[in-house]
Amino acid sequence: MVYENPDGVRIGLEVHVQLNKLNTKLFCGCSTKYHDSEPNTHVCPVCLGLPGSLPVINEKAVEYAMKIGLALNCSIVEQTQFHRKNYYYPDLPKGFQTTQYDFPIAGEGKIVIEGEDGERVIGITRAHMEEDPGRLQHMGSIDKSKGTLINYNRSGMTLIEIVSEPDMRSPKEARRYLDKLRSILDYLDVFDGDLEGAMRVDANVSVFMGERVEVKNISSFKGAERALLYEIMRQKNHIRRGGEITLETRHFDEARGVTLSMRTKETENDYRYFPEPDLVPLRVADRVPEILKTLPELPDAKRARFVKEYDIIDMHARALTTEIKVANFYEDVAAKVDPKAAAVWVADILKGELNYRDLNIDAFNVGDIAEIITLVTEEKITESSGVEIIRTILDNGGKPQDIVKEKGLLKVEDDIVAKAVEEAIAENPEAVADFHAGKEKSMNFLVGKVMQKTKGRADAREAREKLIAKLSE
Amino acid sequence: MAAWTDISNIKQKIADSSAEEVTAAYIETIGKSKINGFTTVWDEAINTAREIDSNGHDGPLAGIPIAIKENISTKGLSTTCSSKILQGYVPPYDAHVIERLKEAGAVILGKTNMDEFAMGTSTESSCYGPTFNPWDMSRVPGGSSGGSAAVVAAGEAPISLGSDTGGSVRCPAAYCGVVGLKPTYGCISRYGLISYANSLEQIGPLATTVSDIATIMDVVAGYDSRDSTSINRENNYSDALKDDVKGMKIGVPEEYFGEGIDKDVEKSVWDAISKFEDMGATYEKVSMPHTKYALASYYIIAMSEASSNLARFDGTRYGLRAEGENWHVMASKTRAEGFGTEVKRRILLGTYALSAGYHDKYYLKALKVRTLVKQDFDKALANVDVLMAPTMPASAFKIGEKIEDPLSLYLADVNTVPINLAGVPSISVPCGFVDDMPVGLQIIGKQFDENTIIKAAYCFEQNTNHHTRRPREVA
Ligand SMILES: [Zn+2]
User: Fold this and answer.
1) Predicted pLDDT of residue B1
2) Percent of chain A topping pLDDT 90
3) Which of A264, A270, A349, B414 is the most exposed place for a label (fewest CB within 10 A)?
4) How many folded domains does chain A comprise?
5) What is the mean pLDDT of chain B?
6) Which of B126, B163, B168, B211 is catalytic?
7) What's the A406 CA to ligand 1 centre distance in angstroms?
8) Does a cis peptide bond (omega within 30 degrees of 0) precede residue B144?
9) CATH topology assigned to domain B7-248+426-468
């Protein structure tokens, strides 16, 4: 099946990733762990842009950026070069942003995603390093605030901006691209995606090969999909009404789910880029082989290996390899119990229960899930009891063995089930007659009765088998 | 008691009396000053001297007073670049050179006047008013480190630090009859020096003797990890103080004696070169064909960098803040009120040179010319040990003479700016007088070969007496 792309949608994404796993900022020694701190406590003359201060490149940041570039199959520049992007804004303490211009750390690369019609290669244009500005804060809402406050804790944090080609043909593909990108970054252990402002997205969208519109201020992946859906619909409606799409920048209003024209001047800003004289170029090309060696097995490779090594279905392998922590968790479980059963329990059941509670895999323990899987496969408890144990652990804590005892989840003895089957048949002659008349549904009714009598401890499949056997005597 | 003197003399005075007395004498002299060289006298100076007396200090500058240019950050001491826009700004940190000076036991007397943001050749564009030349109060002391040169010439401080972006140490040294060194780019950390044109400038010492220049360099030069352009290289500058230039090869670039050079200045310089011949050196004329483009290239690069370096002064975080109904109005008004005419002119020209459509025509072309100017130096210095030329084309001009004519002011830098484009070291030493005003000889060396130019300057000083003459205004 080939995806037709009926509206000629083309989407390109610019993703800003804050490398918040670095210990220090891009050009100074300030700590990056400011997220729970008072405003303006993680600052120094350099990131406050005080007169006379000078930047010094964080070599670890360069290494992280190279890792990202290599993981995205990008070419790596010979030596680093930084430029000044000149513009005025109160969150920008130097009156310019130090960024990379015509020599980004990483050049062309690619990401493979699950597209509308199978695997699809999305081109990466470039990935470059830059410093994060500070943050404006208001007392209450913007219009009621007595003034604007500036918090420079974020100022000078390392950002890497990853720019894609306009190769995505639907919001769904854009979402897949973002998920894949996040997955790769997660594997590289360069950022904590859960921290506020860790990933920010700008999109450019066009339909019917028309002019592109830039949509800014998207702060979540879900937001990206919504913003794109809205913007495509807006452009199509506008054209249908005889309008023309012009090059413009629009702002995504997350609360209302709409994009709004920023009504800025038509002309492009002139940032007067020029090379930063205070930073000397750093030769990095020689380090590529060494950094390549440190790259971990990436999501696609791991997924392929899981399918082969554990003989599990691709859908499970994909779910298990999106996050490195989940993949590692799965492999630990698979070492203890049957890998196929482990895949079902981790990918389908445990991940679902965690998502529902907005928890991550750290909230569960390898030993516990292995024990639950063993209890089920040895038929000591039912599948639904297994799920119940997971839920109990997540909600109240505890150990599987204790929960089994407390709740009396061990499968009941055969004669109790046999007794319940006999009673159910004796007490429901109509259902029995219906069954003999070929009404399959009546069997469900009888199974329900057996479950009622055993207080749910019987295995439904077993009850059904026993009922059929009895009625066929 | 404080007067035209050098470090060894002061060390003797400290030994005879105390660091406190020496510092107090300087502060008294500054109090009577007519030249407006100091902007601030530090009230901690006397305490620093007292501490050195009571605790002892074995640093190379123990108890030696020093004056610091207004653009070098001093913790707890106002640092304004002589601009209204930085009024009230007190740095929370010390520049690298200040840390080094403090470790060496130096007593920071205070801050010295300069052209606003180091943009000038006369120290007339300061928000604190002009500094006067101690040799003739109707004349400028040169710039932009005019305060740092004038206070040394006037005996208000024995040594000082300035900064040299296009001649800002050498020009006032020449005009005030003192010694001034512009080190190789990367020799002294710029950490804490408020940038005007960061690819060109270096902090440089001023003193009455070459020997003192070497002593200061031994303290302030050297690697600093906070300045990425600082070079990790060990050197002892005092080792260069040897009275011997036998066999030294001097190049005399004819382009530095071109149109606009005062005939008497030219004669003083040639007399100096003859003196070197007498001392056993030889000279040959060399050609540096791209010199004529250096001035234009320098100004475009300096102004472009300045337009960006000065963007941070917007009233948001420190210094002057004007009122405005929103941030953009506040920032615009602050800059309109805070910057002087010359600074605004350079920001505008620099912004223009970097703008889309003009960037290649001006900024990129200026960078290409810079490469050619560098090559001139590489070629010329491949065959000779040093280059010699007039520091300034004429002696100090009158206050007010050129301030309304920026182009004639820019032209005064014609012999100093090529050195900054090339990043090589250069020292200016007194080599004579024209109408009782001092003339400077500029000795230019190879990259990081400060020692050869220090040796040449030292040798010249030992065998001449220009440096012993004192300004009449302070005699
Ligand atoms: Zn910092």
Assistant:
1) 38
2) 73
3) A264
4) 3
5) 96
6) B168
7) 55
8) yes
9) Amidase signature (AS) enzymes (3.90.1300)
